[in-house]
Amino acid sequence: MAKFRQLRDCLESCGLARPQQFQRPLPCPRRWLEFVHEREYHKAFAQGELDRAAQRRIGLPATKPLVRRTWLAVGGTVLTARLALQHGLACHLAGGTHHAFPSYGSGFCIFNDIAVAARVLLEQGLVQRLLVVDLDVHQGDATAVIFAADPRVFTFSAHGASNFPSRKQRSDFDLPLPDGMEDQDYLEAIGNVLPELLEQHQPDLVLYNAGVDPHRDDRLGKLSLSDQGLLQRDHLVIDACLRRNIALASVIGGGYDALSPLVKRHALVFRAATDQARLHGL
Ligand SMILES: [Zn+2]
After folding, report:
1. Model-level pTM?
2. Catalytic: which of 37, 99, 138, 159?
3. Is the pLDDT at 1 greater than 90, yes or no?
């Protein structure tokens, strides 16, 4: 997918990131992936042996480049989370595949990168408590299921009530939103719950899915946020964490539109992060 490279180019050309600020991940080791995913599933995917029904459910053809990108993207989310612990804030140029369950993928998601990253940090003793803030317009259904019985990871999902997946799961906190919601109401809805969740759970790290599909021009979104609204949302989330000395790692999540507007939309979280890093002296 061209959007990943274009996003990188866009960040450099807009002056949002210098070349030396980028770090290259390695593909996720199998051992880490298996903190979340079943061996049979990831092996079948990597070897191009998923059956038709499983491939259809994912909605992407299992090509070699896709396999490579998928393992790399998960490695990138783990790296981003570690960098966030080190620096207070780090942003991934991919990630957010929150519809990937332990033994199957769905909705363009193959492996659940945030879930893997959370488990890796917990296993390595780098964190005790995590909060997943999933503001992609689709519910983080698989993430909710994966951590349903794990008190160390609190899952928060704000999503279009009528949108995919039709069968919602139970996150620790769900905020279903009505179709057509605009900037002001959306920002109020998030702003009303996020500070309290941070205070209550005191996470060592927030894993933030900054999906841009709540945008009004998004093909799959059904909400009506503007560019400005998305930017304000990202400011709100990052500021809420940094002012409490909580580290934040972001992933780009979903977005469905022509390449050029989409890349600009995904760049918004990097713009917010750059400004917030300066404001908070990181
Ligand atoms: Zn989405």
Report:
1. 0.97
2. 99
3. no
Provide, rounded to the nearest whole percent, the portion of the chain with pLDDT above 70: 100
First and final CA of the chain: distance in angstroms? 32
Q: 220 C-alpha vs ligand 1 centroid, how far in Å?
A: 8
Write out the residues surrounding ion ligand 1, Cβ under 5 A.
136, 138, 211, 213, 254
Q: Which CATH superfamily is domain 2-279 in?
A: Histone deacetylase domain (3.40.800.20)
Give the Å distance between the CA of 224 and the centre of ligand 1: 14
Q: How far is the CA of 44 from the centre of ligand 1 (A)?
A: 25
Which positions ≥6 away from 139 have C-beta within 8 Å?
Answer: 157, 159, 163, 165, 168, 169, 171, 174
Q: In the chain, what are the domain boundaries? A: 2-279
